[in-house]
Every structure is written in structure tokens, then in C-alpha cells.
Amino acid sequence: MAIDTEKHRRRLSNEPMSEFVNLKIKRQAGPESKPYWEEFRVRYRPNMNVIICLMDIRRNPVNSRGARSTPVVWQQNCLENVCGSCAMLINGDARMACSTLIDEIGAEVTLEPFTKFPVVRDLAIDRGRMFDALGRIKGWIEINGTHDLGPGPRVTPKVQQEAYAISRCMTCGCCFEVCPNINPRNPFIGPAPVALAHYYNLHPSGAAQRDDRLQAMMGEGGVMNCSNAQNCVEACPKGIPLTEAIAKVKRDVTWHGLFAWLRE
Q1: Radius of gyration of the chain from Cα atoms?
Q2: What is the pTM of this model?
Q3: Do 142 and 111 fall into the same domain?
């Protein structure tokens, strides 16, 4: 992500910010409504993030023209960069609103909902396609019965380390938003679901559904629809090695298809 050197210099030198933060927000009353822009102004405070700005607007929904408006709708939960629900376009970049500080981006802020998901209202989006994708790749480990299964299978430290990096995925949708392969002409399942398929295949118990996951990755919109643009790695708030996981799934899918052909 590009760094605004002037803003960075001002932050390091402790120069004062503007007295107010000006927010230009893309709003939409409902899924079928026409979007429009509305501007707000909130008083600046040190160390405030985008969520704080939105909360200030909610407490006093008066726009920059002095007209009474409606509170802006957005999604949030943990406010600790863990749940992924507050992801949105901030000054054109896919970012988390809870971890984006005004001191870093400046007093002129533009907020938009993600474009790769249906808008529910204002900045709130429907991430249903991501959760449908998790169903397609069997994003779970099946353990049948209620009896004592004994100790779980051993997992080597190397596999633990690789799996942990992927397990930090919070399904925020940033990788979907920046992926050029997710568009009306391409049914690509998305970077995060592919990486999570690899994550579940790494676990000895999850490997029981390995063939099912790889078969799903061979279908329409599967892993081969990824063109390796690598935008997802740049945008991921957790620094997940998405392209590495995708490359390994491509390899596994190739071998899976080859052996399936030989078995016929």
C-alpha cells in the first residue's frame, strides 16, 4: 500500500492535524436504492480511528451543510482488527476501519462500501458469497459421534506454523475487493476460500475430505481461475501468504486430476 510521505512526515514531526476531519461517504438507503455522496465534519482528536468518526456522526447526524441527516450504517464487532466486519474502502484502499488512524491518512477521508459484495445499506455489505464459498470447499473438519475419540493426531511444528498463518483469516473480504479475477465475467471462488481449503487439508483430520475440496477447486470458478495478480497479499490486513497457499492448491489440484484420470 502506498504511503503518503507528507502525512507520514507530519506525523513523525508531531505537527498538529486540522481541527476537523472531513468525511465524504458513499451512502445507499437499500440494496435497490441509488447511491449518493454525503459529506460530514467531525472534530479531530489525537489517535482517533475511522470508527470513532462514524460514531461521532451517529451521535449527531448533521452533514457539512448543516442539514439534519440519518446516521451512517456500517458493520463492526470486535474493534480489535480480528472480526473483519468493518472492512471498507478508505481513500480508495481496502482497509479495516478500526485499525485505520486519522493521524495516518489525514483529515480528508473518503469512505465507500466494497464493490464486490451487495450493499445492504451505506457501508454495510452482504458477505454471503464468501460464506457460500466456505461451504463449497467444506470449510470444517467432520468428527462424527459423541464418544471419547482419544488424543488428536500429532501435527508437526512445520505444519502448525504454516496452518497458523492461514488460520488468522477473518473473512473480511479485502482480498475479494482487490482481486481482478472476481468480476461479472469470472466466477472465481476467491483467494481466501482457496487458502482455507489448503488450511483444512493440512490437518490430519481435515485431510479426510481432501479429495472433495480439491474436486471443488477443479470446478467452475476454481483455483485455476486465479491469474496470480498478487493483489490479495498486498491488501490482506493479516499478512496471510495467500499466493503461496493458492500455488500449493494449484499443485495439489493438478496431481489430483492426474491421478483421477489414471484411475479411470
Answers
A1: 22
A2: 0.88
A3: no
